[in-house]
Specification:
The protein is mainly alpha-helical. The protein has one domain (26-76, 110-160, 194-312): Rhodopsin 7-helix transmembrane proteins (Rhopdopsin 7-helix transmembrane proteins, Up-down Bundle). The protein has 10 helices and 5 strands. Strand 1 and strand 2 (8-11) form a beta hairpin. GO terms for molecular function: G protein-coupled receptor activity; olfactory receptor activity.
Length: 313
């Protein structure tokens, strides 16, 4: 279970304890986790299938949505099965390498989703402000390059964290009060100085997620200015409606994360299990609700879903 080196004991196996203080309720807590995961898998898989198989949906907006659905599946799969194993079988044992692998996919996918939401805001900006040049600007070639850039950015920024964690000696204890591994949550159990980890994690947050939020905000300021300059009320309503689903997804993605950050910073008297539950909401809610939001608010997707099921009948 442990290995010895020149600095003493370094744990190579850890135990995820789930939600501390609520161990007796783990079986009940697992129900919304399971329902959320199944909904996320089915909803996002259906969206990807419809978009890829229906040629009329091979437009930039829907291709970016396809990328978002793929990222949602990865994010939920990287976390929920591990949590369910803890809740159902008390199987929280995880090696250091698996823990680092899990947090790598969680953090990189989260940054990918943030980048995709930024690109989707840019897509709406082009569609509303430059409608006649929309197809000439957002070509399939550019969409492919954007997709590659998003994933290179996410994996490239998170990759150094592997080495920052590997250099540490974990000698405090090996019980992690969480349902999944995350960077600072693991690093704080090291006996080494983790200032490099803290500052690197902060720099990633500022240069990716915070920057994305600022650019999304600027995009929507420009979009709203363009919408309210339209002479036709019908055109304004149509433009606002096309942005509605994306705005809902943006709030759903960044909202819980902002709330969690505020509670961790100012809510020191809040019980630990509340922090863990909020962290899980950030992971569970967007993948589950994104396909529902787009299914309800996007007419083309509604039509294709209805057509697919009526065709089968």
């Amino acid at each position: 279970m442990t290995t010895l080196n020149h600095t003493g004991i370094s744990y190579t196996v850890f135990r995820l304890v789930g939600i501390p203080g609520l161990e007796e309720q783990h079986m009940w807590i697992s129900i919304p986790f399971f329902i959320s995961y199944v909904t996320a898998l089915l909803g996002n898989s259906l969206l990807i299938f419809i978009i890829l198989t229906e040629r009329s949906l091979h437009e930039p907006m829907y291709l970016f949505l396809c990328m978002l659905s793929g990222a949602d599946i990865v994010l939920s799969t990287a976390t929920v099965p591990q949590a369910l194993a803890i809740f159902w079988f008390h199987a929280g044992k995880i090696s250091l390498d698996c823990c680092i692998t899990q947090l790598f996919f969680i953090h990189s996918t989260f940054i990918s989703e943030s980048g995709i939401l930024l690109v989707m805001a840019f897509d709406r900006y082009i569609a509303i402000c430059y409608p006649l040049r929309y197809t000439t600007i957002l070509t399939n070639s550019l969409i492919g390059k954007i997709g590659v850039t998003i994933f290179l950015r996410s994996y490239g920024t998170i990759f150094p964290i592997i080495f920052l964690l590997k250099r540490l000696t974990f000698c405090k204890h090996n019980f992690i009060p969480h349902t999944y591994c995350e960077h600072i949550g693991l690093a704080k159990y090291a006996c080494n100085d983790i200032q490099v980890n803290i500052w690197y994690g902060f720099s990633i947050l500022m240069s990716t997620v915070v920057l994305d939020v600022m650019l999304i905000f600027v995009s929507y300021v420009l979009i709203l200015c363009a919408i309210f300059c339209m002479s036709s009320q019908n055109a304004r309503h149509k433009a606002l409606n096309t942005c509605g689903s994306h705005i809902c997804v943006i709030i759903l993605f960044y909202g819980p994360g902002l709330f969690t950050t505020l509670t961790q910073r100012f809510g020191r008297h809040i019980p630990p299990h509340i922090h863990i539950l909020l962290a899980n909401v950030c992971i569970l809610a967007p993948p589950m609700l994104n396909p529902i939001i787009y299914g309800i608010k996007t007419k083309k997707i509604q039509e294709q879903v209805v057509h697919m099921f009526t065709k089968q009948k």
